[in-house]
Design a protein that fits this description.
The structure is a homodimer. By secondary structure, chain A is of the alpha+beta class. The first copy, chain A, has helices at 18-27, 58-68, 88-94, 100-108, 125-128, 142-166, 179-186, 217-220, and strands spanning 80-85, 111-118, 170-174, 192-201, 221-223. Chain A has a four-stranded antiparallel sheet. β5 of chain A pairs parallel with β1 (80-85) of chain B, so a sheet runs across the interface.
C-alpha cells in the first residue's frame, strides 16, 4: 500500500519487465459495475498510482456509500467518516503531511479522501442500536471507545476499498502520512482520528505497479 | 455486530414484525458466487445468527482466501492469521471467553474462525516487500508494529467478510468476547493478537436479525 511505483516508464532506470507490461494490459480497463453486472467482488487487487482527469462525482461517492453502508460494525456504530478534499486549498493543506513519494500523485488525483474514525460515535447509539438503550453508557471511557472507533472504522475502510472497485473506480490507499498532523489540521474538534488517505479516480497511464507476492493459504490459515 | 438476535421466533416474547418476516424472506437464499456469476460485491448486509448443519470445507476456505489475498495492506505485510476451530475440544476451549449471548450459536456453528494479527509480520517483509529491503528494520519497535499489524489485519477482516459472502456463505462476526483471554488461550507464543471471532456457514432458520438503521451519506461524507 505504501510501496513506491514499481512498474515505471519514462525516466525509469530500467525498462518495464515483460510481466510488468502484461499486468498493465490485463488491468488497464477494470470492469465497470452496473445493474446485473457487478464489479469484482474483492478489493484492491491493484493499487492505482495515476489517474485520468475524469472527475469522481458526488453521485458516484453516494453510490459507493450505498454499496457499503450495510457492512457490520460493533454496536452498529458506523464510526467511519469520509472527508473529501476537492478544493485546491484543501489539497494544499494536506500535501505537507504526506511522505514525499505520495505528494505528486495526490496533488494530481481527481479525488482525495481522508478516512477517519469518529471517536464519539457512541452519541448516535440510541438511534443506531435501539434494542440496547444503555449501549451508549457502556462506552464512556474515551480510550476504550477510541479503540472501538478505530477498529470498526478500519473494517469499514475494508468495505470501502471493495466498494470503490465495485463501482468501477480505482483506489490508491496511502498509509504513508503524518496521521496526527492530518488529524490536527482537518479535525480540530478533537473527536476524529485520521486513519488512512485514499486517492480515487479512473486509472491513468502506468497506473499499476508490479504485483507483490502474497502469502499462501496454508501460511495464514491454521486448524485446531 | 454484537447485537442480540432481533428477529426471533419460538420463545420470543413478541411475534416477528412484518418487516422482520419480509427481510427474512428476502435474505433467506444468498446468491451463490461462481465463474462469471460473482456474489454480492459488498459485505455483511446481514449478520447470521443460525446456520444449517452443512459443513464449510477447507476447499471453501481456500477459495475465500484466494478471493481476498490481493487486498492491499501496509508494506504488503498481510498480517491477518485465521485459526479455524473444527474439533470439539478446540470449540470447548473457546466458549468460556464469549459473552453469554454468543455461546450457543458459536457452539452450533459449522465453522468458527479466530481472526488474529501476527505482530511479527515484519519478519516476512524481505520476501513480501522486496523493493525496500530495509523495510523490516523500520518496524523494530513492537508497540508501533503491533498497531500496524492490527490496522492491516482489520482491513483484511473487512475483505474477508466480503469474501465469505461472495463465496455464497453467511458470516456471523462477533466482537463480544474476551480478546486478551482468547489470545492467551490460543496464541501462547505471544506474537499474535485475537481481533474478532466469526461464525461461518449456510444460513439456518431465523438466521437474520431485523436490519438496524444506517447513517445517510450526508452524515458521514463531508467535502472541503
Amino acid at each position: 500500500m505504501t510501496a513506491r511505483r514499481w512498474c515505471t516508464t519514462g525516466a525509469a532506470t530500467r525498462p518495464p519487465s515483460r510481466r510488468c507490461r502484461r499486468e498493465r494490459t490485463r488491468h488497464a480497463r477494470p470492469a465497470r459495475a452496473g445493474p446485473g453486472r457487478p464489479g469484482p467482488a474483492v478489493p484492491g487487487a491493484r493499487t492505482a498510482d495515476t489517474f485520468t482527469d475524469e472527475p469522481v462525482t458526488d453521485a458516484q461517492v453516494a453510490a459507493i456509500h450505498d454499496l457499503i453502508r450495510h457492512g457490520p460494525t460493533a454496536y452498529n456504530g458506523q464510526p467511519l467518516r469520509v472527508l473529501l478534499l476537492r478544493s485546491a486549498a484543501a489539497r494544499t493543506r494536506l500535501l505537507p503531511y504526506l511522505s514525499s513519494s505520495n505528494r505528486a500523485k495526490t496533488a494530481a488525483a481527481p479525488l482525495v479522501a481522508v478516512l477517519a474514525a469518529d471517536v464519539d460515535f457512541h452519541e448516535r447509539l440510541p438511534e443506531l442500536y435501539p434494542h440496547r438503550p444503555r449501549a451508549r453508557d457502556w462506552l464512556t471511557d474515551r480510550v476504550a471507545r477510541a479503540e472501538q472507533a478505530r477498529f470498526s472504522a478500519t473494517l469499514q475502510i475494508g468495505y470501502l476499498l471493495v466498494g470503490v472497485r465495485a463501482a468501477g473506480l480505482a483506489a490508491g490507499p496511502m498509509a504513508g502520512f503524518d496521521a496526527a498532523g492530518v488529524t490536527r489540521e482537518f479535525f480540530p474538534d478533537g473527536r476524529h482520528e485520521a486513519l488512512l488517505l485514499m486517492n480515487v479516480g479512473h486509472p491513468g497511464p502506468d497506473a499499476w505497479r508490479e504485483r507483490l507476492p502474497r502469502l499462501n493459504t496454508e501460511e495464514v490459515v491454521w486448524t485446531l
